[in-house]
Amino acid sequence: xxxxxxxxxxxxxxxxDFKYAISQGTVFLCLPDSKYYEKQAPGIKSAELKGLVTFQxxxxxxxxxxxxxxxxxxxxxxxxxxxxxxxxxxxTIDDSNADIxxxxxxxxRLSVEGTDLTDKSVVRFIKVMPNLxxxxxxxxxxxxxxxxYLKTLKNLKGLRLDGNQLKSQFIAxxxxxxxxxxxxxxxxxxxxxHVKELAKVKSIRTLFISDNQSVTDRSAPxxxxxxxxxxxxxxxxxxxxxxxxxLKPLKLIYVKIDPSLAEGKVGAEIKAKLxxxxxxxxxxxxxxxxxxxxxxx
Length: 297
Hints:
Blueprint lengths: L6 E3 L3 E5 L7 E6 L13 E5 L3 E5 L3 E6 L17 E5 L11 H4 L6 E3 L7 H10 L5 E3 L21 E3 L7 H4 L10 E3 L7 H7 L7 E3 L11 H5 L6 E3 L7 H5 L8 E3 L2 H4 L1 H11 L3 E3 L7 H9 L1
Parallel strand pairs: 6-7, 7-8, 8-9, 9-10, 10-11, 11-12, 12-13, 13-14, 14-15
Antiparallel strand pairs: 1-2, 2-5, 3-4, 3-6
């Protein structure tokens, strides 16, 4: 099947025939006041990536490819200059076809989680996408050598690195992004020394450091030095009751901890002393958007 687009250009719109019988993803209309650094990609569903799709002039769009898309060639047909949000999680992407992603130079949000991309491609994205506000790199093939380049992204507010084998010497580079609001760096073999460096980013409101078993109560003083912190995930670390209770001065809204700390007398004590902080032991998927909205407003 040929992927050559059929273009019908008019003053106010572009129509592209994707010539796919099965949808390759979804197109979203991004509103003028959309926030690109929130957990949910911005926009209202507009169309499926199949058949004839209309793109209006002077409007920004978001695109999310179908889950585990084996071929991202359909992205070549998009009006690149009008795409501000791109999610390709789980798609078949590595450094050999990263050019397709790099063509989207006006992105404010990019999520490439669960792909085989390495630092080489991420550095390229950073260099050609200066307006990025959210960058999700979880469960990729990066080792962190791309992190020193993040400081060039002056609008970067959200960064997700979960599940990567990051080299220790690169983690401190995140502290050179003073405008970050959200940092998700779970299951990355963090230590207390790393938390000390990350705590230098005083703007962070949401910090996920779960499943880092070398993070202990020694990190508590560093976390207390983050005045804007509102949401914190600590499950899967070595934080004890005393460490959690020592976070009371932060006036956190949400804290996620291990079930062993949230049950029985220990749990009752933590909940009583940290009240009105909400103590959870699971991810509240149903309320994820409203929780995050509360964090950033």
